[in-house]
Specification:
- There is one protein chain.
- The protein is of the alpha/beta class and 644 residues long.
- The protein is 46% helix and 14% strand.
- The strands form four sheets. Strands 12-19-17-18-16-13-14-15 form an eight-stranded mixed beta sheet, sandwiched between helices.
- The chain is elongated.
- 39% of the residues are buried.
């Protein structure tokens, strides 16, 4: 049996030693590896205690030089005398999840291979990127003949500084394989190099990690596989691979997906995570198998306009008997009408009246703050009226969109509750973004007066949180959703009161506290350790999906090769450069035409001129102030009648 030392470089921006790292270290120890953890940067005390109890040695160092300089420090710390005691040295890090299969299985298989050093994957030649073949450096094993060579010592003695990530790749990972092979040492890869070169030609074999794990028993999955590389995936596949691997792990129980979710939710922006993992749940609308849930569930309904009481009842009446219902109104007249209509339900129904201040936000965060504390799951809808959209059709359809997505039928509601029971990492269930007409926010979540800067100012004012706000938040546009009470601890940590919201009637184009809070829901849920998922009943989702297909088809027809994300990314880069140049050289011209360039950035440089001109005219005509500089105590609405 070979005696081996594993040098495990660990870096975490928050100083955490997450569960997947602990699992990996334990897996290395189970494969008869002595483990030296090289901590680049800080580590919280709890993580230090775990490492001490695990039996792993620990070296703390300044976070400089990335992995290779961490490994160099580890080798120097171990010293040449100790290194000579080992048959193999493993250089690895915390950039992957595993072991999925026991590491010992891979070590045993590679013991039969005649080589001086080996890795899990060998990257093929990519002439376009000037990238030669090389072993990928997240897992490199070196054997005794190489460890005792002058070439090994010379490599580390002459290791150039690594100031940026590209230095580590080009001066470390890529250069090392060629350096050692040129000096007569042979290399090998655990994964079949020929197979994955045929599949991917010049591309990183980790892009098909699911195939490697499922077909070839690769014991690790790169973290980036689950949240990065979207462009490559979508340009070559249906981008189902990360979800396919998660499903495989859940079914086989080879590795607990909870470790992956716990890690990803802590550092990947939710919209980016959703792009790769597809947090979408299309549930049956007419057939339900789950029985009564043991979780306490409430449905909160805010009804302002009298004429929409019957509309709300047409959906709420489908709620299972074990769902408690809370009706909130702003007048006794509406309350009395609700009591008359909802009184026939067999559910427990409670009626509450609040001041005409804060609208649906105060209905949930103030009037029903105790409900959030008492129940496990809460559904929230409100009678949304949008008369400011002229003929009212778009506003009415948007209201239907939200209610259908959340309360489509009794069986559907049971399936929603069952979904929350079965998936403990789901915090919010929200309707798809509205994707029709001039109310569409699909890919344009910060339209109009809704600004990321203002949302960031709200976070700082009310919660003392300084953070970046996502470009495309997965949030309940319209303010209606299902949520887990544990996922809103941060949101409800501020003691909201009616006085936090302005008095009615609201001035038009006020600060939009309501709409910004909507867009921050997923931020708060992620901060509490939960992800946000879109939700829709199957029959209704069919329309939405086909409309999206129609939209993409028409855009593709105009742009040409519209599905090529790298092409779109190129045009965005060109546009960004042009915008920066014009802002500096011709600022007056840039100010006059910024609407055109904003549209160009979103819609693509080959979109129709008519659409561009139309949007520019509307921006100039509105000429409304934007941004955090306008924020001086954000108010609640957009100058629309109550119920919007």
């Amino acid at each position: 049996m070979n005696k081996r030392l594993a040098l495990f470089v660990h870096h975490d921006g928050k100083g955490e030693l997450r569960n997947y790292v602990r699992y990996c270290i334990a897996g290395l120890q189970s494969a008869d590896c002595d483990v030296l953890v090289v901590v680049n940067g800080d580590l919280l005390e709890e993580g230090e205690k775990w490492l001490a109890a695990s039996g792993a040695a620990v070296l703390f160092r300044e976070n400089k030089g990335f992995d290779f300089w961490g490994w160099k420090a580890g080798l120097e710390y171990a010293g040449p005398d100790r290194i000579r005691e080992y048959d193999e040295i493993l250089l690895t890090n915390n950039t992957f999840y595993g072991p999925i299969y026991p590491f010992a299985e891979m070590f045993d298989a590679m013991a039969e291979r005649n080589c001086d050093f080996w890795g899990i994957n060998r990257h093929p030649l990519n002439a376009d990127a000037k990238m030669p073949e090389h072993l990928q450096s997240y897992w490199l094993v070196f054997r005794k003949r190489l460890l005792e060579s002058e070439a090994w010592r010379s490599w580390w003695d002459n290791l150039p500084p690594h100031h940026i990530w590209n230095d580590m790749v080009y001066l470390g990972e890529i250069r090392m394989t060629r350096y050692l092979e040129d000096r007569g040492f042979t290399s090998a890869s655990y994964m079949d190099f020929d197979k994955y070169t045929r599949l991917l030609k010049m591309t990183n074999p980790c892009f098909v990690t699911d195939t490697q794990v499922i077909e070839d028993r690769c014991p690790i999955a790169k973290r980036k596989f689950f949240w990065d590389w979207k462009e490559h995936e979508f340009n070559t596949t249906t981008d189902y691979r990360p979800r396919r691997l998660l499903n495989f792990l859940a079914e086989t129980r080879l590795l607990d997906p909870a470790m992956i979710y716990d890690d990803l939710i802590r550092f990947v922006p939710m919209s980016r995570l959703n792009d790769n993992l597809h947090f979408v749940n299309i549930l049956p609308s007419a057939l339900s198998r789950p029985g009564k849930s043991d979780s306490k569930t409430a449905l909160v309904v805010y009804v302002y306009p009298l004429e929409l009481v019957d509309y709300c009842f047409s959906y709420v009446k489908s709620a299972p008997e074990y769902v408690d219902i809370v009706i909130v109104t702003a007048s006794e007249e509406v309350r009395d009408r609700c009591a008359e209509v909802f009184g026939e339900l067999s559910n427990s129904v409670e009626y509450r009246i609040q001041p005409n201040r804060g609208r649906d936000n105060s209905a949930l965060l103030v009037t029903c703050a105790d409900i959030i504390q008492k129940y496990d799951y809460i559904g929230f809808v409100h009678a949304k009226r949008s008369p400011y959209w002229g003929d009212g059709v778009v506003g009415n359809d948007f209201r239907d969109h939200c209610f259908n997505s959340l309360l489509f039928s009794g069986d559907y509601i049971k399936n929603v509750i069952s979904l929350l029971d079965k998936n403990p990492h789901i915090g919010l269930l929200v309707p798809f973004e509205w994707n029709c007409g001039y109310m569409a926010v699909y890919g344009n979540e910060w339209a109009g007066l809704n600004k990321k800067e203002t949302a960031a100012a709200i976070l700082k004012k009310y919660y003392g949180i300084e953070a970046k706000v996502e470009d495309h938040p997965l949030s309940p546009i319209g303010g209606m959703l299902w949520f887990r009470s544990k996922a809103v601890k941060t949101l409800t940590s501020y003691p909201w009161g009616y006085d936090d919201f302005p008095e009615e009637p609201l001035p038009r184009n006020s600060g939009l506290l309501t709409h910004h809070l909507e867009r921050l829901w997923s931020f708060f849920a992620q901060k509490d350790g939960y992800y946000t998922s879109y939700i829709a009943p199957d029959s209704y989702a069919a329309y939405y999906i086909n409309d999206s297909r129609y939209f993409k088809r028409e855009i593709t027809a105009i742009r040409g090769n519209g599905s090529d994300l790298s092409n779109i990314a190129y045009f965005k880069e060109v546009n960004a450069f042009y915008r920066a140049y014009m802002r500096k050289r011709l600022p007056w011209f840039f100010r006059k035409t910024r609407g055109f360039f904003r549209t160009l950035k979103k819609e693509g440089p080959l979109f129709t001129a008519g659409l561009l001109v139309k949007k520019c005219r509307r921006r100039i005509r509105n000429n409304a102030p934007r941004g955090a500089e306008q924020y001086k105590g954000v108010s609640a609405g957009a100058g629309t009648p109550q119920g919007e």
